[in-house]
Design a protein that fits this description.
The structure holds 2 protein chains of 2 kinds.
Chain A: E1 5-7, E2 10-13, E3 19-24, E4 31-38, E5 42-50, E6 53-57, E7 64-68, E8 74-78, E9 87-94, E10 107-108, E11 112-116
Chain B: E1 3-5, E2 10-14, E3 19-21, E4 24-26, E5 33-38, E6 44-50, E7 56-58, E8 64-68, E9 73-78, E10 87-95, E11 98-101, E12 105-110
Parallel strand pairs in B: 2-12
Antiparallel strand pairs in B: 1-4, 3-9, 5-6, 5-10, 7-8, 8-9, 10-11, 10-12
The chains are: A mainly beta, B mainly beta.
């Protein structure tokens, strides 16, 4: 069973550009969450998608957006990049279904390392 | 609001010694608690999770954690550390709708 796949693994962008990151969850997982990880702020929740709907959103500016497709693959987009957006972006999928009261925990991808110069 | 505190930023232990990583949480109801491990340049791997029932939870790689409601703690333990355990460890509370991670504890293993 393939794990969570994130592409690309590494990315270098210039300030002001935009970037799109991709995440393919484990087959059958419909919940996909995105996190930003930096040395100073740790793991910060960006957003969570379930069945193409954004269910939850963290405290990030509108430059950060995402979407989920019918096959559960998800993308996140960051527009007008700033130096502070340099981070490891982690995608996590879960088999938790809507309405389930028990969490299953996440399976994380290896992340996309974004460097903004 | 739920939150997680990992009081130790960095811990160094000798190979073969026992390990305990501390985690304290704040949560309004019965917490769902998790421990994850992250190797350099990698994503996080789930070590173990607690929902309810037995307060001593067994995980992968020989790790266990004990839920203590009275102390709002969920400390991770391992009786004998291996060099391959060197990594960063994250405690988390919540579920997939709202999961909060601690700041992490970096574990160094001395030969």
């Amino acid at each position: 069973k393939a794990g969570v796949t994130q592409t690309p693994r590494y990315l270098i962008k210039t300030r002001g550009q935009q970037v799109t990151l991709s995440c393919s969850p484990i087959s059958g997982h419909r919940s996909v969450s995105w996190y930003q990880q930096t040395p100073g702020q740790g793991l910060q929740f960006l957003f969570e998608y379930f069945s193409e709907t954004q269910r939850n959103k963290g405290n990030f500016p509108g430059r950060f957006s995402g979407r989920q497709f019918s096959n559960s693959r998800s993308e996140m987009n960051v527009s007008t990049l700033e130096l502070g957006d340099s981070a490891l972006y982690l995608c996590a999928s879960s088999s938790k279904s809507r309405g389930s009261s028990s969490p299953y925990g996440y399976t994380f991808g290896s992340g996309t390392r974004l460097t903004v110069v | 609001a739920q939150s997680v505190t990992q009081p130790d930023i960095h811990i160094t232990v000798s190979e073969g010694a026992s390990l305990e990583l501390r985690c304290n949480y704040s949560y309004g109801a019965t917490p769902y608690l998790f421990w994850y491990v992250q190797s350099p340049g990698q994503g996080l791997q789930l070590l173990l999770k607690y929902f309810s029932g037995d307060t001593l939870v067994q995980g992968i790689k020989g790790f266990e954690a004990e839920f203590k409601r009275s102390q709002s703690s969920f400390n991770l333990r391992k009786p004998s550390v291996h060099w391959s355990d060197a990594a960063e460890y994250f405690c988390a509370v919540g579920d997939e709708n709202d999961m909060r991670f601690g700041a992490g504890t970096r574990l160094t293993v001395k030969p």
